[in-house]
């Protein structure tokens, strides 16, 4: 499908606006999840990173999130108090600490939320898009993620200098 230049410009503007709305919806959805867990959004994102890697050090988590180690200490304290994470000392070097997710407690709270979300998305996509269109959407999401990661890193580097 070939678009006229003015149509392409309009599409790019519409994509930007839809992307902003998607971002806002995503943030609000994750805030609602955090609220249901008794956390704030930053704590929830830290918990996501801890779950994905299972064994981050506080310093690694701070770097990934762009936070100070002091802020991460407070976050890990809250996650431990809520029963979602725990600190573990290294068996060889007792000074080293890693943070691990308490998977069963998290799954009990998050599985129903994400199962509902995934089922709703599957219904929406299956009803509206062909396999080829879903492959295009997947490509868009992956490319968008790479751009977001690159732009985030660029801002972090600018702040460091």
UniProtKB/TrEMBL annotation:
One term of GO molecular function: DNA-binding transcription factor activity
Organism: Dictyobacter aurantiacus
Swiss-Prot/TrEMBL GO biological process terms: response to stress
Domain HTH marR-type: 8-146
Annotated transmembrane regions: none
Protein name per Swiss-Prot or TrEMBL: Transcriptional regulator
Alphabetized Pfam families for the sequence: MarR
């Amino acid at each position: 499908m070939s678009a006229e230049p003015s149509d392409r410009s309009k599409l790019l503007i519409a994509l930007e606006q839809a992307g902003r709305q998607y971002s806002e919806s995503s943030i609000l959805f994750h805030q609602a999840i955090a609220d249901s867990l008794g956390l704030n959004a930053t704590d929830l994102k830290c918990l996501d990173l801890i779950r994905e890697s299972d064994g981050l050090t506080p310093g690694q988590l701070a770097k990934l999130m762009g936070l100070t180690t002091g802020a991460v200490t407070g976050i890990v304290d809250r996650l431990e108090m809520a029963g979602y994470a725990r600190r573990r000392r290294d068996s060889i070097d007792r000074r080293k600490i890693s943070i691990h997710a308490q998977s069963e407690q998290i799954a009990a709270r998050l599985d129903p939320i994400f199962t509902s979300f995934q089922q709703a998305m599957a219904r929406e996509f299956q009803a509206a898009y062909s396999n080829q269109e879903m492959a295009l959407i997947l490509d868009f999401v992956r490319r968008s993620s790479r751009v977001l990661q690159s732009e985030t890193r660029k801002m972090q580097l600018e702040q460091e200098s």
